[in-house]
Amino acid sequence: MKAAKLATVAMAAFAGLTAATGSTHANLLVSFSGGGVSGSLSLTLSGATDQIYGNAYEVTGISGTFSDANNGLDIVNALVGSLVSITNATPESGNLLAPYDFSRFPVASGLPPDSNGNVTYDNLFWPGGSPQTGSDYPFGGGFLDIYGLMFSIDGGEVVNLWSNGTGMGYGVAVATSANALDYIGDGSVTATATPELSTWAMALIGFAGLGYAARRAVSKVPALS
Questions:
Q1: How far apart are CA 118 and CA 99, in angstroms?
Q2: pLDDT, average across residues 75-95
Q3: How far are the Cα atoms of 116, 165, 199, 211 from residue 89, in angstroms, in the given order?
Q4: Three-class SS of the chain
Q5: What's the mean per-residue pLDDT of the chain?
Q6: Is the CB of residue 153 less than 8 Å from the CB of residue 83?
Q7: 72-76, 149-153, 197-201: the lowest-pLDDT one
Q8: C-alpha span between 83 and 159 (Å, rounded)
């Protein structure tokens, strides 16, 4: 719940910034650790939302570092490259709740059987907590959903970070198109999201601007006789 509250505050800052300056971007800091993995990410949020879910904001930029001590990978503070592009894949026929930005990254071997050979992602940020976004998975509530973010790292691998639902932790997968190198789906990873200081500063300006505009509007209302 704490992470969801921080994310909600982050988007309040985003709203203040956008309203006052016309900007359509804001930055968030995301950190996660547990289960042998850790990372520190800076995310750029667009003002655009998913076409199905208007409360899910598209992540358009990413930077940071990622570490994984499992399975002999010895990945230490690898630089994050870029987001894996959204493909707007068609969900399984029984999945009626997937976002429009639902996407798949095919992996030839090593994934759990229920993955159908794909790591799924949508690169969406949910400021108020994600709803149920999979018809066969009844949980939600994280600032990411069950598909989550997918990004590349400088070793050539991709990393997927997703939420298992409120109070159920996060999951991380590391893969190439040939093999799943690590898969932590048990919720042992914890994650938090907070606004970057620059976003806070601009948001304060935004809120101040909104207040000034409101006072001007009130001052122009004629007095009732």
A1: 17
A2: 97
A3: 14, 23, 32, 43
A4: CHHHHHHHHHHHHHHHHHHHHCCCEEEEEEEEEECCEEEEEEEEEEEEECCCCCCCEEEEEEEEEEEECHHHCCEEEEEEEEECCCCCCCCCCCCCCCCCCCEEEECCECCCHHHCCEEEECCEECCCCCCCCECCECCCCCCCCCCCEEEEECCCCEEEEEECCCCCCEEEEEECCCEEEEEEEEEEEEEEEEECHHHHHHHHHHHHHHHHHHHHHHHCCCCCC
A5: 85
A6: no
A7: 197-201
A8: 10
Q: Measure the N-to-C terminal CA separation of the chain; round to a whole number of Å.
A: 51
pLDDT digits (tens, 9 = 90+) for 47-73: 899 999 999 999 999 999 999 999 999
β-strand partners of 31: 40, 192
Structure tokens at 132: 């149920």
Q: Which two tokens stand for residue 186?
A: 């048990």
Q: Is the pLDDT of residue 206 over 50?
A: no
Residues recorded for the chain: 225
Long-range contacts of 144-148 (CB under 8 A, 24+ apart): 144/170, 144/191, 145/56, 145/99, 146/120, 147/98, 147/99, 147/102, 147/103, 147/120, 147/121, 147/122, 148/121, 148/122
pLDDT tens for each residue of 169-191: 999 999 999 999 999 999 999 99
Predicted model pTM: 0.83
CA 4 to chain centre: 12
